[in-house]
Amino acid sequence: MYLARLKEIVDFPAIKKAGLRIGFDPFWGAARGYSDSLLRDSGVDTFTVHDIRDVMFGGHAPEPDDHLLEELRTGMKEKKAHIGIATDGDADRFGIVDEDGTFMQPNYIIALLFDYLVESRGWKNGVGKSVATTNLINALAKHHKIELHETPVGFKYIGELIKADKIVIGGEESAGLSIRHHVPEKDGVIAGLLCCEAVACRGKSLGQQLKELFVKVGSFYPQRDNFRLTEEVKAKFTEKLRQEPKDFYGRKVSEIVRTDGLKLIFADNSWLCYRLSGTEPVVRVYSEAGSPSELGKLSSAAKQWIFD
Question: What is the pLDDT of residues 255-300, one digit of tens each?
């Protein structure tokens, strides 16, 4: 039933017609036999790595993160693949490698697929994102005149929006997304297949498409950092999170959002968000700016504010 539904959602004939070569890495996990089988059944040139059962997942976490995708990259280079798609162990999260070997961070994939689905499907019923996910999505929502739903972190909030048919797509920067008329849960399989469709139908790599988005609505450079805290520092920082700063190391705070944690939005549209872990003495810091150099300054200031 699931495979049949994917064939209804994804334009496999278009992927075949474009002559795409695709690499797939299921990380020894639950997506084995799904993405690659669907592509091969449609006549698409596809190769797979880590396509055996391994309860140790290669000796590391089965996460489709940049530093764990080298075998996929190697295969892509050998076979001159146009895109590499990966899923984590239980297939609810995704990892995407562009034609030139660049890892496309999840923030950008959600934004690119949002733009593509609006263009290709004509859907305009809304978009959902967690408070910690890139504001590139906010800018695209404004550009397309589509309602934005910004939720606390946790895909259950996105899932409710999907069930109510309020959004085209919903996603979180931690590599979870789903779309309209599909399961109200994170689905790494649909994410990868839709990326293949977008590359096929637009005739451009994901990197090229991202550059075009930046021209259309401005540039956005997001980053996430985790900092482990001592009990003493955590206690002080928890108190600090209750403050309402009007200035942040020379940056004027234009808006404070408390949807989840503390999010500070600055006058130049850069922002940062602090979220304390509920299970360990860790603070997660999400920051975003309009250039890599500005992002570096902002993330340094964000760290300084924790430990001052």
Answer: 999 999 999 999 999 999 999 998 889 999 999 999 999 999 999 9
Residues 6+ apart with CB under 8 A from 211: none
pLDDT tens per residue across span 166-203: 999 999 999 999 999 999 999 999 999 999 999 999 99
Predicted model pTM: 0.97
CB 227 within 8 A of CB 239: no
Is residue 69 within 8 A of residue 95, CB to CB? The reply is yes
**At 219, is the secondary structure helix, strand, or coil?**
coil
In this structure, which CATH number among 1.10.600.10, 3.40.220.10, 3.40.120.10, 1.10.1040.10 belongs to the domain 108-183+213-217? 3.40.120.10
β-pairing, 176-179 vs 247-248, is: unpaired
- Side by side, the strands of the sheet bearing 251-257 are 221-228, 282-289, 271-276, 262-266, 251-257, 247-248
CATH for 2-104+187-210, options being 2.30.30.60, 3.40.120.10, 3.40.50.2000, 2.30.120.10: 3.40.120.10
Cross-sheet strand order for the sheet of 83-87: 45-48, 21-25, 83-87, 94-97, 103-104
